[in-house]
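BUG: 3D viewer hangs when loading the predicted structure for this chain

Environment: internal workstation, default settings.
Expected: structure renders.
Actual: progress bar stalls at 90%.

Input used:
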Amino acid sequence: MLNRVVLIGRLTKDPELRYTPSGVAVSNFTLAIDRNFKNSQGERETDFIPCVAYRQLGELCANHLAKGKLAAVDGRIQIRSYTAQDGQRRWVTEVIAENVRFLSPKEGQAGGSTTSSDYPYGHEVNLNDDIPF
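Structure tokens produced before the viewer hung:
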């Protein structure tokens, strides 16, 4: 069986960092990803994908990502349910991040390239090149 997803998009707002009662860091953020086609009105539609990062990765996301920043998330899809205060059962689909690449340049850095020394979990990316997919 395989449950794998790779996303590249921009954050819709700053990540929210919280801690579980046992002290585990949890960072929640949403990626906005444009679809590759236009609708009947000639506009691109956007999907908003909720992502969750745990432990050290969650803290790194909260510290290094911000609204509008470009990020790549590698992880798995998880579906869970809970009972809301009104008694209704709610379902949530989210991506559990296992690896996050920070693709936007650091604040104050000129040019469009980052290297692994600029960000944890980063690799060299030239933001002026088109993404090949």
